[in-house]
Amino acid sequence: MSDTPPATETAAPHRYTAAMAADIEDRWQDYWDAHGTFAAPNPSGELAGDPELAARPKTFIMDMFPYPSGAGLHVGHPLGYIATDAFARFQRMAGHNVLHTLGFDAFGLPAEQYAVQTGTHPRVSTEANMVTMKAQLRRLGLGHDKRRSFATIDPGYYRWTQWIFLQIYNSWYDTEAGRARPIDELVAQFADGSRPTPDGRAWSELTGPERAEVLSGHRLAYAAKSPVNWAPGLGTVLANEEVTADGRSERGDFPVFKADLLQWKMRITAYADRLADDLDLLDWPEAIKQQQRNWIGRSEGARVDFPVRGAAGEGGGEHAITVFTTRQDTLFGATYMVLAPEHELVESIVPAAWPEGTHEVWTGGYPTPADAVAAYRKQAASKSDVERQAEAKDKTGVFTGAFAVNPVSGEPVPVFIADYVLIGYGTGAIMAVPAHDSRDFAFARAFELPMRCVVEPTDGRGTDPATWDDAFASYEAKIVNSTGSGLSLDGLGVVEAKAAITDWLVEHGVGEGTVNYRLRDWLFSRQRYWGEPFPIVYDEDGVPHALPDSMLPVELPEVDDYSPRTFDPDDADTSPEPPLSRNPGWVDVELDLGDGNGVRTYRRETNTMPNWAGSCWYELRYLDPFNTERLVDPDIEAYWMGPRDGQAAGGVDLYVGGSEHAVLHLLYARFWHKVLYDLGHISSFEPFHKLYNQGMIQAFVYRDARGFAVPAAEVEERDGGYFHQGEKVSRVLGKMGKSLKNAVTPDEICAEYGADTLRLYEMAMGPLDVSRPWDTRAVVGQYRLLQRLWRNVVDEATGEVTVTDAEPAEETLRALHQAIQGVAGDMAGLRFNTAVAKITELNNHLTKAGGPVPRSIAEPLVLLVAPLAPHIAEELWRRLGHTESLVHQPFPVADPELAQDPAVVCVVQIKGKVKARLEVPPTISEAELEAQALADPAVVAALGGAAVRKVIVRAPKLVNIVV
Description:
With 963 residues, the protein is α+β, with helices and mostly antiparallel strands. 32% of the residues lie in helices and 18% in strands.
């Protein structure tokens, strides 16, 4: 067969070509749309009137939300979409009710930046991008229920995003009940005195702002001042994931500073234990689970209070520094303390002057503690958390001028601030035990601070830290030098010492055993235009009020300028000015909130929600997209996502997407889902039961001598090298993308070969969860497969169907049933590459056999192909005389007897050398195979009477005899 490229081959009148593929694909896509072929039934509709339909198992399949980029799709993007479509089609043919659709995560920074550059409203560019992307996805023949599609920018969608925010805002976490409860129940407890207020006053005595402040300390969504990543050059606050390792913005490469700003946050930390524990109920890759556990960072230890000996120059000690430590057994070795530069106590404990005898190296050369602290805090604000945590031996910091008291030894310990302590971890303060922590050791050496060995070294270095090169850290050694205050830990192991010191802390009221988490409350504010507005207004006292449901959605207003106000990139002492604040007619409003206070003047929240908000609950909207009365109908949610055998937490049956979302999106969505479950809105308490991470389609990147990418399509390979316009270029395997000039669009491949060829090639490239390189030249292999399939059913010269009603040969019948058995297993296990290989093998068998293909073989073959190459399968099915679409035809079922090989060749080895080959049944037992091998004349002759020491049998293919 010729390997002439499709575009130039001479076609027989009815040969399967790219032009024919385009015609077939377009016609069947129109048919599917017109007939609603992929519409998923709902309990309140089709299922209610059709018992047979209702009795079927269900499968809810989802892809991770795509963002409608202006660059459109390249061939790497559809990998997961084609895989889920093939699986969904297989499940329909296996008799399942299938829900599979796709929407668009359309809020976000790219559209806003484009608006800043061009003045085009983000909605205009985003909707244009969606039109392009929908056309590209349609061309691939994806079987989505298009009725259920939506975009997060639809007011009808983000009305419910705002509603969910209000559910979270109007809730608190009851630790005793272990769930969220309405905030009104907490208010009732304060009002009737069953729960005391923080200062002991009656609830009725508190003013409105005071009540709001108390409740803010409990709400699951609350506004608070906190250190955030502030990028003056962008004019916005950034999430941690938007800051590079060198402390600059991912977009624009501007410096990022730490600044205290009033921001909306979500108390995801209240769910830390449930988020960690419920991972055990999920069918997720273990690596993804571990990343979530690490992000949550649960650790057991103790809280310890260190009284401050004098504050702000006074002799009293009204302040105490609280630390969390997992090594409370080393408390006697704490010789100094370190606060994060942003810690709230810093300003309160700094005295007016340096204490007498302060070591010169502690002051940083500044005349007063206040000067030293202010300068250091400014310096620390210019560093990213990654820089601050770098494992460098050179530690920086400055003495605050204050001393705290070690509660077990009674000794004064100096209090420093240093950037290696982060405000976002633990309590933002540490007790430093320099003899047994490498970072503390380096800091103590730099600042000439004392060290005390309290864990006896087991490596012979002795117990004088002054002679050590680094700290000694161990959980296996004994405790030493730890006696005082009526307590002795000497001679105890770490576990025993932890228990003893924790009991002592509780007894003396200076600490307790506790659990700490790395997880921080979720920063939920963005100083941007293109995002969901908050359904919150503020009164004249600055107290936030939730809007009633009747006022939702709060739609985005028009503004003259979409860009946040930017400042000198190096000026950290600035504050954001959100674009929404520039529409005073929208910001300042008179409203009656229905709270009995009548019409009042309010100020709207001018921040917007982050782009994560819309993707936190979209699986629920897919279930019931037209419901305007409630988030989701309970019966519909219970049917598609409710708990069931093997899925105790409920959730989507299969969720496919990239591993880059291992933590943030998945953790945030799980949090929202659990809140909604606690409040009784849904029956499932996890959103995604099974998670599958597809690999990446990579492409070669070619770079010139300057390191710049050159167009991959223009590179020539010759003499063992690669050349662009006559100049040699380098080649490395990397991502595919427009900026790397190596992107191949699905439109190009569809035009050259057809969508079914692209689908087959992407599924055949390798295991779905493994990254693989794109090779346009290899696509033709799957194109030839489809041409051979077509020829096995249709005469290329006449267009007539050539199948016969004759009975197939036994060899062909066995080939079919072996293929059916193998393909069914592979499709169920998402092993699409091996499914394609088995289909290819069967098709090649028919081609080599020659002559007309029996109908009893052709029809099952077409059904096997259908999930992977649906257009050509539909066309062949119709030509074979069927009037209905094959989408809901039963998938072929293998005959177990025919699916087995009639005989298997077993190799018999003696001393590692093959001495015989036996034809045996595939079901032969190990005992039968051993007896047959030892009785074989060739084996008997090879043994020559030697004693058999051992026989290793691997039925049915191997016998190894040891003499």
